[in-house]
Amino acid sequence: MKKYPMDILEEIVAHKRIELAKQKEIVAPATLYNNVESLLSDCPPPHRSMRDSLASSASGIIAEFKRKSPSKGWMKEEGKPDVVPASYCQNGASAISILTDEKYFGGTLRFIRIARPTVTCPILRKDFIVDEYQLYQAKAADADAVLLIAADLTKEECKTLAKKAHELQLETLLEVHSESELEYVGECIDMVGVNNRNLGTFHTDVANSYRLASLLPKDYLLVSESGISNPQTVRELREAGFRGFLIGETFMKTEDPGAALKEFIAQVTQ
């Protein structure tokens, strides 16, 4: 397992492993794996490419359904997964990110299952993925892509999970936040995201995207994550080569996240 200083990220990942052990007691890995593999062979789900959606979009907004965070607490405890994601999709989102961590982000895997019939946009399962079991869960819930966080994984773990994700017909968004993590970029990675939030302190600085932009591979679709609240920032990041922009708090803290997204996109594309 990768070693890193004691911080909120280590706390979250440690709890995630405990959570996973309990989930495996409820649904045995063999049962979940067999169910998903039968689904893929008997009734393959429709192909919804998050990468293609971002590449062809004039805005590239990945609108996030996030009710809570460790740094901000509850933003929209009453937010409903059958309402907010649908509103995002109707108002121009290129993709939807759904937090599925319960303790720290107020999410659950059920949110993807609930949202899926209400949206046509690709759905990203955003969680702290450290085990292939979570990839099978994502596919069973009908997600289209998964987040892999370099800071959570060794290079070999990341490579193995990315390969398994592709076997399950899931696209991969690899999240990096430092130059040293760029070595994780490789086979079976579809998109590379620069997290502008320090995962240890949760401080955000969009300058991190600009700093890493020139070092990132040109043949990967680039995503800027966290700390984006101004349409002008999106326009400038697009000029720097980014095509995806993951934004949650800016929308979720408003009374109507979908309407806030619509206005944001209008300013980005004007």
Task: Give the topology.
Blueprint: H1 8-26, H2 29-42, H3 50-55, E1 61-65, E2 68-69, E3 73-74, H4 84-90, E4 95-99, H5 110-115, E5 123-126, H6 132-140, E6 145-149, H7 155-167, E7 171-176, E8 191-195, H8 207-213, E9 221-225, H9 231-239, E10 244-247, H10 249-252, H11 257-269
Parallel strand pairs: 1-4, 1-10, 4-5, 5-6, 6-7, 7-8, 8-9, 9-10
Antiparallel strand pairs: 2-3
Helix pairs in contact: 2-6, 4-11, 9-11
What does this structure look like?
This protein has one domain (8-269): Aldolase class I (TIM Barrel, Alpha-Beta Barrel), CATH 3.20.20. An eight-stranded parallel barrel has the order 1-4-5-6-7-8-9-10, surrounded by four helices. A two-stranded antiparallel sheet has the order 2-3. The longest helix is centred in the first third of the chain and has 19 residues, at 8-26. The chain has helices at residues 8-26, 29-42, 50-55, 84-90, 110-115, 132-140, 155-167, 207-213, 231-239, 249-252, 257-269; strands at 61-65, 68-69, 73-74, 95-99, 123-126, 145-149, 171-176, 191-195, 221-225, 244-247. It is α/β, with parallel strands linked by helices. The protein starts with 7 loop residues before the first helix and ends with a helix. α2 (29-42) packs across α6 (132-140) and α9 crosses α11. It is globular, with a radius of gyration of 17 Å.
